[in-house]
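Weekly modeling sync, notes
Attendees: S.R. (lead), two postdocs, one rotation student

Agenda item 3: backlog of single-chain predictions. S.R. asked that every request posted to the team notebook include the full sequence so nobody has to chase files. The rotation student volunteered to paste the first one in as an example of the format we agreed on. Action items at the bottom.

Example entry:
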Amino acid sequence: MITGVIVTVRIARYGVNKKRHARDSAAGGATVAQHTFLEGNRVSLIAVVLMSHTAHIPSHRKPRRSASKMALRAGVAGGVLSTLAVAGAAGTATAAEPVTETIELPTLTADLSAQIAQSADATAQAADSYEARAQQDAAATKAAEQAAKDQVEAAKKAEAKKKAAAEAEAKRKAAEKRAARDAERTQLSTQSAPSGSGSSTSTSTSVSQDAPAPSSGSVAGVISFLKAQVGDAYVMGGTGPNSWDCSGLVQAAFKQAGVDLPRTSQAQSTAGTPVSMSNLQVGDIVYWGGAGSAYHVGVYIGGGQYLDAANPSKGVVIQDLSGYPASGAVRVL
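Predicted structure, as returned to the notebook:
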């Protein structure tokens, strides 16, 4: 910590008060400031020296190697304080060295005070302007972020609306196709007739005479293809064109309607939507055995009949469900 020790103030008009200087220099104990004043100065002077808080202890005093002297002259309007002289002596406490530099400070006049007040007002106004600008920038940034969020949200809503419209259109088309297939199945059911002689089979010639015109991609196309194969041979693993096994024939028939079915009867028995035997429609796949483990499949053609590649002795035939009831059915169209 540095403390300031102000010694007795001497007022002099000319030079150094040598008598007082000699007396103070001879006194022991605390370090004192030299009685040095500006030559020819007729105004009051105050000598101030900055000192260490241990300067009053003789053993703690250290010699100073350099000296700097500065006097500040400042005037106050009205003559309250004429001059302030600050002398910082770096030599020994008893050395007498003159002040070598004087700095004139501006007089605090009314004009200077007004200028300082104007400068302070301008600074305050600038600070207020900067703060207002910062608030405007923050508001603009927040508005831009909110606008971006609103735009993203609007895009999401538009996409969701578009998706919902597409789903609704797909459902509408699916319903139309379903209605068309139902009407087609109804027509096929009314046109299909049981084999009236009690025989469970019929020839390809008699079937082709009763078959309706095929419709591409529809149940009618499946039934037309199946009836065209009546009379073909049954061969294990056969996939046509003149010999079939049960699942090979069913797979080829539904391919006419653009439906890709699995190759085996086990997989075909779970390929579509399960339906009860009391709710069969033309074009449903009927199977024997458990769902997923079926050992035989055929296609219901209406009128209580189904068409299948039965076995090597019968080949591809039309049979009555009453004579060989199926275990279950699935609908793929």
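Discussion: group reviewed the output briefly. Residues 204 and 230 are 5 Å apart (CA to CA).
Action items: rotation student to repeat for the remaining queue; S.R. to check formatting next week.
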